[in-house]
Amino acid sequence: MAFHIFRRQAVYYWRRRTPPALAIRYGRPHVSMSLRTTSRMMARRLATRLNMILDDVAMLADGADPHLSRSQIETMLHGVVHRHLAKLDRVALAAKSSPDFHLEQARADDKKAYWAYALLDAQGVKAVVRAEDRSRMVQDGLSETDIAAVQDHLAMLRANELIPTKHHILRTMIEGAAAIPTAMNIAEAQGTYLRGMKLALAEHDRRYGGTRVEDEGLVDRLILAKNDPPQPAPSIVGALVDRSSDPTTTAPAAVGQFIPMADFLQFAERLAQQQAADGNWDEKTQRQAKSISKLFVKFMVQDQRILDLSSLTQEHVGRFVDFLRFDIYKHYGKSVRDEKLTIEQLREKGRSVEKGKRGLDGDTLNRHLSFLGQEFDYATARGLKNLESINLTKLRSKNRGKTKRARDQRPKLPIDRAMAIFQTAPFINSASWDALGEWGMEGARQLFHCALYFVPILIYYTGARREELCGLMVDDVILDNGPLPYIHIAKNQQRRIKNAQSQRNLPLHPEVIRLEFIAYVKVMKMLGYELLFPDLHSPSTRSPLGDRFYKQFKPILTAAEITENGLGAHAVRHLFGAQLKKKKLSEEDRADLLGHGGESETSERYCEPHEIETLLEFVMKLPAITAHLEPQAINLLPWVKDKQVAPFSQPSRSKRALKPADC
């Protein structure tokens, strides 16, 4: 029903309740049509597209004006003129440095190009030289030869498919002004583009006559300036940094200067590049920062009607934070479709769920504000002074003191209940590879060696975090560096780690080795896999591998009668620490295993990590709660053994076979 499809005589149909805004015009309570397919998969794909189209139409009919406003048209026009003025200035400067440069010829060429775009601006893309146009050009000093050259220029633009302007250029202009690329808006963008080109080409005196409006009073301003002018950056910086995508406001903005709101996204992009180059942000962090920036700009344009970045105030940002805190769906961003929704659609999605699932939690909100704060600082340092007065600190979520001690905030998992986990089907006798949580035939001992089997065992005997284990690479299991095998926890190409102290080495408990973990690692390496648990991987999603594991592990917890909130894989990690504490292991020693930092200078700086031998002595103090399990020869999931794409992957976006390097 999520796809709004049903089957009638083997053929699938799509049926939706008519949105209220359309029901008045349509006069029917439902819209429906035959999808003309007997394939459920194809029907779901077609229904998804139809749902999106209907939602878009409903949004347009719901009172939102899809037409470009005067301010949005001005935003597009400013962008076209600015870009082409800069381009023409560069071309002129390059021409002037040539020994064959001829000033009058260059000016004449510019004038002829100007007249070509003046005709296009006046008549549209089918422009021709009419009798009245010829008279105006003669009055402007053009000869018959020049007029013929204007006609040739129009023919050249059409021959090279530069007229009409390419659709993606017009669409980018419209989306940059936070508008909808309807057919009418595309037509207005085309006219705005031609007008902007005409205005840029009209400034030939600027390029070849030395008449620049910004030069007027420049010397006086320099003399009266209290501070020395800024020194140019060293030439090596310009050689190393690509500034082609810098926002247009790299210089201090003059009073009253219009700065398109979309330029904020360019600041965010440049900041992400800088932080990545400095090694501070990985790909996931960059993606998160860009995502909140896009939502911020969308909110300001669609909800607050702010099109000028220089007019942004504390009040506007406060309303955005209130939107995040009270209106938006709690899990915004987990679906790739969320970024395509309008602000009103996001509000409606929030209203459609219970209050507990509405609004971001405090930690998530603060993370988003941290990203915005860095972007504000970056833009302020490049001339946007109005952002300097906006205080994000006052908008952050405040924790006024916890009512519980840290160790009491999560429910505890007693060891006897942890033992119940390893009494379930995946560890003793599974029905089949696609029913791991169901019991197999009585008397059988069928095991499938995969993440669902090994990860719970590893969490208990190593204390590692769920994602640290699910994202292990085969080479992270060290078998040839001394007599004791161990796991090396560090950032790899699959996942990052929580913090610097999370990088550590964890010895393999004898129980882990007895249950054929090393044999499993060797089989995966022999098959050419890089990822240790490829059964968690899908090429059609970027979700953490630990999320896929937990989806499989949750029914196992239920089967073990562990149903309290908070008692999951992380509770097993807490059990690891609690058991070692009962064995009188010191806090510093437990921290080395758990990947925690020390609380003092002595424990954090003036120390070295324990050797593997010592760490093994520590984990040997753990009670062996898997002693009842019987080791079996490695038995992989069939599709993992055959190196096929995960059956839970989206077929439309995945490849039918994986190469070893892809795993």
From TrEMBL:
GO molecular function: DNA binding
InterPro entries for this protein: DNA_brk_join_enz, DUF6538, Integrase-like_cat_sf, Integrase_catalytic, Tyrosine_recombinase_XerCD
Cross-referenced PANTHER family: INTEGRASE_RECOMBINASE PROTEIN MJ0367-RELATED, PHAGE INTEGRASE-RELATED
Keywords per UniProt: DNA integration, DNA recombination, DNA-binding
Organism: Bradyrhizobium sp. LLZ17
Record-linked PROSITE patterns: TYR_RECOMBINASE (PS51898)
Entry keyword Zinc: no
Signal peptide limits: none
Domain Tyr recombinase residues, every copy: 423-620
Gene3D superfamilies: Intergrase catalytic core (1.10.443.10)
Tree of life domain: Bacteria
Gene Ontology BP terms: DNA integration; DNA recombination
Similarity comment: Belongs to the 'phage' integrase family.
Name listed for the protein in its UniProt record: DUF6538 domain-containing protein
